Amino acid sequence: MSHLTDQFDVMDLDDFEELLADRPRDERWELIGGRVVKMMVGARWEHNIIAQNLAFGLRQRLRAQNSPCRVFLETFCMKNKTVESATLPDIMVHCGALPAGATSVDNPVVLIEVVSRGSAARDRVEKWGVYQRLGSLQHYVLVERDRSAIDVFDRAGEAWASLRTLEGLEAVLDLPALDVSLPLSEIYQDVLTT
């Protein structure tokens, strides 16, 4: 962490929001379960294309159903006081109305992270430890950046069902809470060919 955040390793959401007001414009920070994390700015092109493919595919299918759900990319925040978190998921789906000018939601239905070697531990352990405590969340999806493989955690009532692992471009990502399916070939289009 930078010297600016050394004294703020752990804090609550209210203090974190005050800290954000003073951050340099070229920095992105998250609060994960009370821990301040300085994020990398910029990502490899593969990450960006996968995130775009997911957002476009989800948005297209949800619109076709006249769904009240909206798809958000990395700059829209998930803030939740109960889990002391303010994160910027790669893809977030929220269902229901939003007030004009909203910059965050606290009740996502789907959260998706594009996973790289550098983000794997944070996405698979730290964020998952926080996200599974969100009562609204129905699916947490971890999309590998460098190979056609996706891990999906699904909520079954109040508990989390076992992990589903999808591999290969012929596999299909099903998100029953949204009544949506996306083939991995579409998710990895223009990134992976075999």
Automatic annotation (TrEMBL):
Q: Which Pfam families match?
A: Uma2 (PF05685)
Keyword annotations for this protein, in alphabetical order, are:
Endonuclease, Hydrolase, Nuclease
List the InterPro entries hit by this protein, alphabetically.
Nuclease_put_TT1808 (IPR012296), Restrct_endonuc-II-like (IPR011335), Uma2 (IPR008538)
Q: Is Hydrolase a UniProt keyword of this protein?
A: yes
Task: Please identify the protein, giving its name as recorded.
Answer: Uma2 family endonuclease
Query: What SUPFAM superfamilies has UniProt attached to this entry?
Result: Restriction endonuclease-like
- Example GO molecular function: endonuclease activity
Every copy of the Putative restriction endonuclease domain together lies at 14-183
